[in-house]
């Protein structure tokens, strides 16, 4: 018996019967024969493929909420991804679900995010004339864009969890549902933390009707949401929050939209970022020869607009600024380090 087979047997012995078992995966887009010396389950292999891919490394230089913040302690898209994954592992462990599947989905869920956070999504939506959705782009990254067009060939369950971590429909596995809930828990709470650090919010600003339910500081809110998700989900047999906590989380999210996500201090530079990406999009549409060489083969089967969109969506914040400066700012005016 191989190490992989023993790990798969252990899953059946210790996990909840409702868990997604590795040896019952619906497989990969392209068949891969099991290796006799493989020591990893299919979901463990997916984690490694994601963590070692280029798109994952670029997350460290992509905005979460605040554009170019002053200080080293604000979240990036990468630290957000790690926080989501840790919350998801805590919940799946307590529910007896497959932690490896949850980790793979968590690590991959935001691979398709644009530079400059949701401002980048808005800019590409404008450029394309149709909604650009980062969850769909994340799936596109793992299916097609990584490994020079070969993709990562991830399992069905991981791909479904990545696609369905936001919007409709919900994921098909309980592990995917856990990641979706963990994403909500993580981003609302760490965005409060960053907003307090930026001086545009204090803990006392949050309505007492919310804090009396969720807690009065960052640690208490996370703990309340995680423990409530575990307790309620155990009783319900699916992943959910209790009605009171779910309502408080929704109210907290609405409060954040009003006070932070639309705050002119937090979002004051977004119009500039959007304009920058739109001008880059227009430039590459008119000058496809300026695209990197590894994008040129894609032009013949994906078309110019889709190829330019993929290139810009994959940029980090600093790379987008550098390309804009290189193309549109006269050499003598460019800021030199």
Tell me what the structure shows.
By secondary structure, the protein is mainly alpha-helical. It is 63% helix and 0% strand. It contains 17 helices and no strands. α5 packs across α9. The longest helix is centred in the middle third of the chain and has 24 residues. The relative contact order is 0.12. The model has no long low-confidence stretch (mean pLDDT 94).
What is the compact description of this entry?
With 337 residues, the chain is mainly alpha-helical.
Provide mean pLDDT, rounded: 94
- The counted number of beta strands is 0
| Element string (H = helix, E = strand) | HHHHHHHHHHHHHHHHH
Shape: flat
N- and C-termini, Cα separation:
58 Å
Strand content: under 5%
From the helix content, strand content and strand pairing, which structural class follows?
A: mainly alpha
Helix content: 55-70%
Largest sheet: none
Computed over alpha carbons, the radius of gyration is 21 Å
Contiguous helical run count: 17
Indicate the low-confidence ranges by residue numbers.
none
């Amino acid at each position: 018996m191989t190490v992989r087979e023993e790990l798969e047997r252990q899953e059946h012995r210790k996990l909840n019967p409702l868990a997604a078992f590795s040896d019952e995966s619906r497989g990969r887009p392209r068949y891969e024969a099991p290796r006799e010396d493989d020591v990893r389950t299919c979901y463990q292999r997916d984690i490694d493929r994601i963590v070692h891919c280029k798109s994952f490394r670029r997350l460290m230089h992509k905005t979460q909420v605040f554009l170019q913040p002053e200080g080293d302690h604000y979240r990036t898209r990468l630290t957000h991804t790690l926080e989501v994954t840790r919350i998801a592992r805590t919940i799946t462990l307590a529910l007896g679900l497959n932690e490896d599947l949850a980790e793979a989905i968590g690590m991959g869920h935001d691979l398709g995010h644009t530079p400059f956070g949701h401002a980048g999504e808005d800019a590409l939506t404008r450029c394309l004339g149709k909604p650009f959705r980062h969850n769909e782009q994340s799936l596109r990254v793992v299916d097609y864009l990584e490994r020079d067009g070969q993709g990562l060939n991830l399992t069905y369950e991981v791909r479904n969890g990545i696609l369905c971590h936001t919007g409709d429909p919900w994921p098909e596995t309980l592990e995917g549902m856990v990641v979706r809930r963990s994403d909500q828990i993580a981003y609302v709470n760490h965005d409060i933390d960053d907003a307090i650090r930026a001086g545009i919010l204090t803990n006392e600003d949050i309505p007492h009707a919310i804090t009396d339910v969720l807690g009065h500081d960052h640690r208490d809110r996370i703990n309340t949401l995680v423990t409530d998700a575990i307790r309620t989900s155990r009783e319900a047999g699916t992943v959910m929050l209790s009605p009171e906590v779910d309502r408080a989380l929704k109210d907290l999210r609405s409060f954040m939209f009003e006070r932070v996500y639309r705050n002119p201090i937090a979002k004051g530079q977004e119009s500039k970022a959007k304009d920058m990406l739109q001008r880059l999009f227009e430039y590459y549409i008119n000058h496809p020869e300026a695209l990197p060489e590894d994008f040129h083969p894609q032009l013949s089967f994906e078309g110019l607009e889709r190829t330019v969109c993929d290139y810009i969506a994959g940029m980090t914040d600093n790379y987008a600024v550098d390309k804009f400066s290189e193309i549109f700012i006269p050499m003598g005016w460019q800021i030199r380090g």
